[in-house]
Amino acid sequence: MAMAHNKTNELGVCAALPSTKQRILREEPDVVIVVGDREFLHYSQVLCLSSEYFDVALNSGMRESDSLKISFPDEDPSEWELFASFMEPFSNAKITKSNVEVLIPWFHRFGIKRMLHACDRIYVDSVSPPLQRKYWKLDGHSSLPDIGNLRNRLRELLHAYAFSAMYDLGITKERATRALLRQIACAPDLFDLEAVAALVAILKHEENRKDLWSSVKEYVPEDLKIEDPDCLVSNKLFPYVLHAEMQSHETSQNGMHYA
What are the angstrom distances between the C-alpha of 250 and each of 11, 197, 217, 228? Predict the structure, then answer.
């Protein structure tokens, strides 16, 4: 008895057998994700393969595994739509400079390390190189640099450091640490009170103090250096003290200052 043969395609795959994509597309989405005031339909298998969070939620006897419904009432539906596009079967979604900061918290929250690492490789470009020192000398012979632009770049650097530390972006944090240490050491008077407050907020986390405290303490008054750094950065007056010291440092050393 002759056996029937299925035709094979150019890849040598049996054409009579449905592809994985075809099998998935024949099935109906079986999970409802509620984000804010919108509902999204998803495939449970795809969610579970993408994230351990969903695997546990949908397969461990939790309430969600019975109802096949998961709610995130306080989140932005448009952000979920973007995030979920990366979990769709055969997705062509791409991480870009314009969407990476939206995606990072979602990938971090659901433990999707592969995508978080991909975000890190893109987000690292947001770290500006160390700022060049441009001073306005008190003798008035030098032209005034664009202080506003320099301070905006410093705020961006502080944000990149804090953001990368919060979401475990190792590549970005390493570059931001180097740049921030350079700024603290070489241009302390560039730190206005807003920037100093952001720096102190960063220092409240022990891991961040390990990176930065050795440079920051150079501007701590001698009578305060004996204090526990944790207590010091928690003091509401510390940003004002640190700001005054950083502003006065270069003036006292070089007779120069930022306007």
Answer: 69, 19, 16, 26
pTM above 0.85, yes or no: no
| Cα–Cα separations (whole angstroms), residue 216 to 1, 11, 37, 219 | 85, 61, 46, 6
Q: How far apart are CA 177 and CA 148, in angstroms?
A: 22
Specify whether the CB–CB gap between 36 and 77 falls below 8 A: yes
The whole-angstrom separation of Cα 8 and Cα 105 is 44
| 125, 97 Cβ separation under 8 angstroms | yes
Determine if residue 62 is left, alpha or beta; phi over 0 gives left, psi from -120 to 50 gives alpha, anything else beta. beta
10 Å CB burial of residue 154 (0-12, 13-18, 19+) is buried
Helical H segments across 187-258, by residue range: 193-203, 206-216, 229-234, 238-254
- The conformation of residue 126, written as its DSSP 8-state character, comes to G
Low-confidence ranges of the chain (pLDDT < 70): 1-26, 130-145, 250-259
* Strand 31-35 with 69-72, pairing: parallel
- In order of 23, 44, 46, 122, the CA distances from 88 in angstroms are 14, 11, 7, 21
**Residues 2-19: pLDDT tens digits?**
444 444 444 444 444 455
How many CA atoms lie less than 13 Å away from 125 in the CB half-sphere?
Answer: 9
Q: Identify the pLDDT of residue 23.
A: 54
- Element at 33 (helix H, strand E): strand 31-35
**Identity of the residue numbered 228:** D
